């Protein structure tokens, strides 16, 4: 999963209920008459902001290499959203996780004089200078998810809430185990060298402090792949003969984790995933295994980034706000999806 930042002020927690996200709020981004949307699983399914054609806008999109389910969903959300607007032309670069290659691709878009740039950087710190270059060239930048080092490198930031993911996962588990004496939980984290992993763990630990009967007895870091999830989960299961709940940071590695759990014949705990993969939501709906919930990290943020870029290009604000300008920062809410609301979120599940 991509790096992001956390904000210290956030909305009240939702324990497995739906939240109004920044993405939903952006359906009014350029005011009137939302368009009907299709039922395309894994891509943005919300109505487009203002279907009425306005000033023509060329948006340059520099996203990641789609080597992970969530990253692929991000790219698809951006493309499908742009297709809903007659007045938007999307210039898409070949996705890259190589910083030098991505910098070159963005410089090409700058030289083409696109109206607005949407950039999900392979490395926010490494690409800060090219963001600054675009802004100085008069091209507003929508910085998607992995944040640049300087606010001068973007006009608007939109991303997920990693701390909030951990916080809401911890509270969901806490509420399920609050009446169990000496409850034990384990954590299957992502890559420990990523700031986002540290934020998710910090949020989880903060939530558990509200439940003195619960103790985290083990933590294992994986690397967001099915193979790593299976291997690291097998190690956790071997080391821990008994526990009550597992929080897994990422649904892609969760596929492997579930394989290891099935191979070990374990069903004595509940599992909470992260991100919102279609496979996770289907397992939650079936309710015949350990996976009971997943905490969203919505790939629809890319669709909302296109909304923001279009609004910037047309000089519009967001409907419902008094201000004439779009905000400088939007952090999406990490809603918990369980069997009670999975039907609502199923269309957003990514493969």
Automatic annotation (TrEMBL):
Biased composition (Basic and acidic residues): 37-54
GO cellular component: cell envelope
UniProt feature coiled coil, ranges: none
Transmembrane spans: none
Domain Periplasmic binding protein, chain residue ranges per copy: 59-316
Alphabetical UniProt keywords: Signal
Chain positions covered by the region annotation Disordered: 30-54
GO terms assigned for molecular function: carbohydrate binding
Family to which the UniProt record says this protein belongs: Belongs to the bacterial solute-binding protein 2 family.
Name of the protein described by the UniProt record: Sugar ABC transporter substrate-binding protein
Native source species: Streptomyces minutiscleroticus
């Amino acid at each position: 999963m991509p790096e992001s930042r956390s904000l210290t002020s956030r909305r009240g927690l939702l324990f497995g209920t739906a939240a109004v996200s920044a993405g939903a709020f952006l359906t009014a981004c350029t005011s009137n008459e939302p368009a009907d949307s299709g039922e395309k699983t894994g891509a943005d399914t919300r109505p487009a902001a203002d279907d009425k054609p306005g000033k023509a806008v060329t948006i340059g999109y520099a996203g990641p290499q789609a080597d992970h389910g969530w990253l692929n969903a991000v790219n698809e959300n951006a493309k499908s959203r742009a297709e809903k607007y007659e007045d938007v032309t999307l210039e898409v670069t070949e996705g890259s996780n190589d910083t030098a290659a991505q910098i070159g691709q963005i410089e090409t878009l700058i030289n083409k004089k696109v109206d607005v740039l949407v950039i999900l950087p392979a490395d926010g710190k490494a690409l800060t200078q090219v963001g600054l270059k675009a802004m100085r060239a008069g091209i507003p930048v929508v910085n998607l998810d992995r944040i640049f080092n300087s606010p001068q490198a973007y006009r608007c930031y939109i991303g997920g809430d990693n701390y909030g993911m951990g916080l809401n996962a911890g509270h969901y588990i806490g509420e399920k185990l609050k009446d169990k004496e000496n409850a034990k939980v384990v954590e299957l984290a992502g890559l420990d060298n990523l700031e986002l992993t540290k934020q998710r763990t910090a949020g989880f630990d903060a939530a558990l402090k509200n439940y003195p009967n619960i103790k985290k007895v083990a933590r294992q870091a994986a690397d967001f792949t099915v193979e790593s999830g299976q291997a690291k989960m097998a190690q956790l299961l071997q080391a821990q003969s008994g526990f009550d709940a597992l929080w897994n940071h990422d649904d892609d590695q969760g596929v492997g984790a579930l394989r290891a759990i099935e191979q070990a014949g374990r069903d004595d705990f509940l599992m909470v995933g992260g991100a919102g993969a279609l496979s996770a939501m289907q397992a939650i709906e079936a309710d015949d295994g350990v996976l009971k919930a997943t905490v969203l990290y919505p790939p629809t943020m890319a669709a909302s980034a296109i909304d923001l870029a279009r609004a910037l290009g047309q000089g519009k604000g967001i409907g419902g706000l008094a201000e004439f300008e779009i905000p400088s920062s939007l952090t999406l809410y990490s809603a918990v999806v369980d069997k009670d609301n999975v039907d609502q979120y199923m269309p957003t599940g990514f493969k």
